[in-house]
Each structure stands twice: as structure tokens, then as C-alpha cells.
Amino acid sequence: MTTRLASCSCGQLTAAVIGEPVRVSICHCLACQRRTGSVFGAQARFPRQSVSVLGVSTEYTRISDEGSHITFHFCPECGATVYYEPEGLEAFLVIPVGAFADPDFPAPSISVYQSRKHAWIVPPAGAEQIP
């Protein structure tokens, strides 16, 4: 079984994951662009029981475009987001793909908020594209 380790930049906050993600997606919403400092967010969803978090996190909760709450857990030392919890998906934890620092991580199969996508971004071939 696959084991992966996600970490903040300084290593104080980690999330060890056993097994494959149930979903890998990219999100083009403006909030993800601001949170990541990039043109989209890439995230992987895992069953909560497959993730072991170690370290101290600071929480920030915002309201999604659909009106639900999303609680982000980031390192109070370096500020990197290591995982988050979307309301309505309590059985899962979501981890930014970049926190794994793994170029072999599975590609996204879903691309959401296409209407806010930068024109030069091309989602992976075969990815479901949701407006």
C-alpha cells in the first residue's frame, strides 16, 4: 500500500497518508488562486481515517462559492497549508498536492471553476471539466 508524507515548508506540520487519493482535482476559483499564490489550486481528497496529522496548526475558515465552510489548517511557523476540511465532506481530509513535493503524484481527473481559469492553462487530457 502506498504511503505519502505531506509537509509544510519548515516540517513542523505533517500529514502521513496511507493509500491512494479518492479524488485529485484542480480548482480555478479566485479563492484558491489567492490561497496558493498560483493560478489554480491542486488538491487530493483522502478518507479521514487514512491520514495521520502531526504538529500544530492554525485554522482559517472561509465560505466557499457554494456557501459552505472550508477550514484550512496551516503551519503557524511558515504559513504553508497542509490540509483542509470542507463542510459536507466530513469523512475526508483534503491535502494540497504540492505539500507532498512528489512529481510522481497522480494527475488530476477533475478541473473545477473553468470559468475562472486563466486562458493559457490546459487541464490534463481526459480530465472532467466543470464550469
Would you kindly provide a written description of the structure presented here, covering whatever features stand out?
With 131 residues, the chain is mainly β. The protein has one domain: glutathione-dependent formaldehyde- activating enzyme (gfa) (Alpha-Beta Complex). 5% of the residues lie in helices and 42% in strands. The chain has one helix spanning 30-36, and strands at residues 3-7, 14-18, 23-27, 41-47, 51-54, 58-63, 69-74, 81-86, 92-96, 110-112, 128-130. The strands form 3 sheets. A 5-stranded mixed sheet has the order 9-4-3-10-11. Strands 1-2-5 form a 3-stranded antiparallel sheet, with no helix packed on it. The termini are far apart.
* CATH homologous superfamily assignment: glutathione-dependent formaldehyde- activating enzyme (gfa)
Chain-averaged pLDDT: 97
What characteristic shape results from the CA principal axes?
Answer: globular
Our estimate of the beta-strand percent is 35-45%
Task: Give the ordered list of helices and strands.
Answer: EEEHEEEEEEEE
Total helices: the number is 1
Which helices and strands, and how do they pair?
Blueprint: E1 3-7, E2 14-18, E3 23-27, H1 30-36, E4 41-47, E5 51-54, E6 58-63, E7 69-74, E8 81-86, E9 92-96, E10 110-112, E11 128-130
Parallel strand pairs: 3-10, 10-11
Antiparallel strand pairs: 1-2, 2-5, 3-4, 4-9, 6-7, 7-8
